Amino acid sequence: MRQIDNIFIHCTAGFGDVAAIRRWWRTPKPQGPGWKNDGYHFFIYTDGTIEPLMPIDRVSNGVQGFNSNSIHIAYQGGVDRKNVNKAVDTRTDEQKASILYVINEVMEVLKKHQSIEHIKIAGHRDASPDKNGNGVIDPWERIKDCPSFCAIPEYKWITGKVAMQSKKLVWRQSEYSL
Fold it and tell me: Can you give the CATH number for the domain in which 107 is found?
């Protein structure tokens, strides 16, 4: 088992199914990314159905620069159905429950192989660079809005204090208290 330091939450920025997303991942550049591996370990449909995409001991293409030590969970949606360029938290109650279920299951597996106190749970956008060096990922600095909600405060009750004190990801301390 590889060492895991992060669990990233993603949205798909659309409402396609796994087959459509995989076709896009495999589409050569410049129309697609041309990936050989999937972008997520788990995909969650709007009805809460969980589709495992790849084993957690394999590296996926979820967040550039963080993939070797991360697990990636995506929910279907995250954008306005009438305007896919507008980020919206479209999670259903079923998706919220399934995300928590997957996080719990992943943590249960990981704690058999490593300490889980340092694992950070964040959104893809929280791995964006702090371009102005103010210690905060400002909205204009985000590479993307994914997952269309603030994952750090939503899941901080799962994340241990050791993880919240780490500086590998820039935690927006002005917004998130321990």
Answer: 3.40.80.10
